[in-house]
Amino acid sequence: MSWASRYVGIPQADFGRSEMGCDCWGLARLVYARELGIGLPSYDGAYVSPDEHAEVAALISGAEVDGPWHPVATPEPFDLLLFRRGRFRSHIGINVDTRHMLHMDGTEQARIADIRAPRWSSRFCGAYRHVERGVQCL
């Protein structure tokens, strides 16, 4: 988990896009830029608040259809994991290994979580790989 450990403890910040603070998309964007050299859009101004789960879910759906993300059956490190918050698919984690993800934990900070725990496994919606990483689609 060496690469993921570098991000643990980054504070949660609505619309955050740096090590000074991130939301879940900001964390994915930071990791992709630093670890993979892949620039992800910031989505600045695309949603009013991270609590607007419907707006965030619409952005995610649009990226699935028109964007560079493709579903994968077996997640690899750095694939994005999508989870429901309530009825909306609006939370993203970054796959670390077969059991762990890096994500922003609510209003606290970035941490590593067990994706097999009931809290996460019951809300899991799918894994996605960026086209610049090479994709073997479902």
TrEMBL record:
NlpC/P60 domain span: 1-131
InterPro entries linked: NLP_P60_dom, Papain-like_cys_pep_sf
Listed Pfam families: NLPC_P60
Keywords: Hydrolase, Protease, Thiol protease
Signal sequence extent: none
PROSITE patterns according to UniProt: NLPC_P60
Family note: Belongs to the peptidase C40 family.
Protein name listed in UniProt: NlpC/P60 family protein
Organism: Ruegeria sediminis
